[in-house]
Design brief:
Elements (H helix, E strand, L loop, with lengths): L1 H18 L16 E16 L4 H7 L7 E17 L2 E14 L2 E18 L2 E8 L31 E11 L4 E13 L12 E12 L2 E9 L6 E11 L2 E18 L5 E18 L4 E9 L6 H21 L3 H10 L11 E9 L8 E10 L5 E12 L2 E11 L11 E12 L1
Antiparallel strand pairs: 1-2, 1-18, 2-3, 3-4, 4-5, 5-6, 6-7, 7-8, 8-9, 9-10, 10-11, 11-12, 12-13, 13-14, 14-15, 15-16, 16-17, 17-18
Helix pairs in contact: 2-3, 3-4
Length: 431
């Protein structure tokens, strides 16, 4: 009830602001480029979770806690984005602070998402050092070639992400003819104690690179990573506009000696090493009525097979039954420890379909965009579907109401999630 009261108050307040008249003025000084720019947003995001008490992941994470059917969360976020330019030098920083009130109590986390210096001595060359998000890849929901980036959240792809400490450069050259542009981006990534130590094996200096070609009006990237923190990997991506409103894109990634750890239904842990080939194909289509369709197919060769996931969920159930019978939670703790590795990813199986449909200003309702996002697991036939309402008619304010439903049989990915539905309101004020 407290959650819905808060939502009601916020919507009423926002509606009242929308009815008010605003005065607009034009000031030439406002469009002049200034050396220092500071922006960002403040966000309030209450969440209501409908728990699935019979799911494997609920048993694993909440076996010794209350048995409530509904759980509330209150999230507060402040993101500060600042840039300072002087001559050929630029400093850029993004700092994110999250406050969260959940069933575990209050928590706070402040993270430097980006903080780097950029030097641009000429129009063809620039140099960067510091913490940066590279954003490699052409995919919308997934990026198998983003070897130096943290994974996106496919259910909210626009969220800001934390980068890594790197040293990089960009060399850009333009041409006449079929090849219009070429660029090369070499990257050094150190991995040591307290420097990128969550990336992979420590005490390594990794080298990566991206070569970009604008060839016959097609964007093409060739990408590689080597150095020892992770096994060698190579990839390519492309993007091309077939027409002004129809775009296709794809990614292909090769990973040498990928190591996967998994557990069977009896609790035996196995390690498997193999070369993995992952790929993504997608399209984006905009209709004359301003409806946008984004569709992608993703094959993740590093993911788990259907039988491997069934074994994992079966072992959790066995551990939960043991806990109920004797109070011994050792099997559940073992499953939790294994989950801290490969089982802790957002989408952890092999084949997925993604579809997002959004309609700009239907029925001539200004600043209103409804959308629908679906993720379908081809392997076990489970899926998530999320309708969303977005309103931006109030200056600097964004209101988003989103609901997600998770559907699947027993021992399927979405069927065994901790909750089976989720509703959240995002109120974000930009400054």
């Amino acid at each position: 009830m407290r959650l819905w009261a808060a939502i009601g108050i916020l919507l009423t307040f926002s509606y009242g602001m929308a009815l008010g008249k605003e005065e607009y003025s034009f000031d030439l000084s406002e469009i002049e480029e200034k050396p220092l720019h500071i922006g960002g947003y403040l966000e309030f995001r209450p969440v209501l979770l409908g728990l699935d008490k019979n799911s494997a992941l609920h048993k694993l994470k909440s076996y010794n806690r209350g048995k409530e059917n509904v759980r509330e969360e209150y999230n507060f976020t402040a993101l500060l984005d600042g840039t300072y330019r002087k001559g050929t030098t630029e400093f850029h920083a993004i700092v994110n602070t999250d406050f969260k009130k959940s069933y575990l109590g209050w928590s706070e986390e402040t993270t430097l998402y980006e903080g780097y210096m950029s030097l641009k001595p000429s129009s063809t060359f620039n140099f960067n050092i510091g913490k940066k998000t590279l954003k490699w890849g052409k995919g919308y929901a997934w990026n198998p070639v983003a070897f130096l980036d943290r994974a996106k959240d496919p259910e909210d792809t626009e969220l800001a992400r934390e980068g890594y400490v790197v040293v990089s450069a960009d060399y850009i050259k333009s041409f006449d003819g079929p090849l219009k542009t070429f660029s090369f981006t070499p990257v050094l990534m150190p991995v040591y104690d307290h420097i990128n130590d969550d990336f992979g094996n420590i005490n390594r200096l990794n080298f990566a690179g991206k070569m970009y070609f604008l060839l016959y009006d097609t964007d093409i990237d060739l990408i590689f990573l080597t150095g020892g923190s992770k096994t060698n990997r190579y990839g390519m991506d492309f993007s091309r506009n077939i027409t002004s409103n129809f775009e296709i894109h794809g990614e292909l990634a090769f990973i040498d000696d990928h190591k996967k750890r998994f557990i069977d239904s009896d609790g035996a842990v196995f390690d498997k090493e193999y070369d993995a080939t992952s790929y993504l194909l997608g399209l984006r289509y905009l209709t004359k009525s301003d409806t946008t369709y984004i569709f992608e197919y993703f094959h993740d060769a590093t993911g788990f097979a259907e039988s491997e996931m069934e074994d994992y969920f079966s072992f959790i159930d066995k551990g939960y039954d043991t806990y109920l019978a004797s109070g011994n939670d050792s099997l559940l703790k073992k499953a939790s420890n294994v989950a801290g590795g490969n089982y802790n990813r957002k989408n952890l199986m092999r084949d997925y379909l993604y579809l997002r449909v959004s309609q700009k200003e239907p029925f001539d309702i200004l600043y209103f965009t409804p959308s629908l996002t679906g993720i379908f697991n081809i392997n076990d036939k489970s899926f998530s579907i999320g309708p969303e309402l977005l309103y931006t008619g109030i200056k600097n304010l964004e209101l988003r109401l989103k609901t997600t439903f998770l559907v699947g049989d027993s021992y399927t990915e979405f069927g065994e999630k901790q909750n089976d539905c989720r509703i959240e309101l995002r109120v974000r004020y930009y400054f």
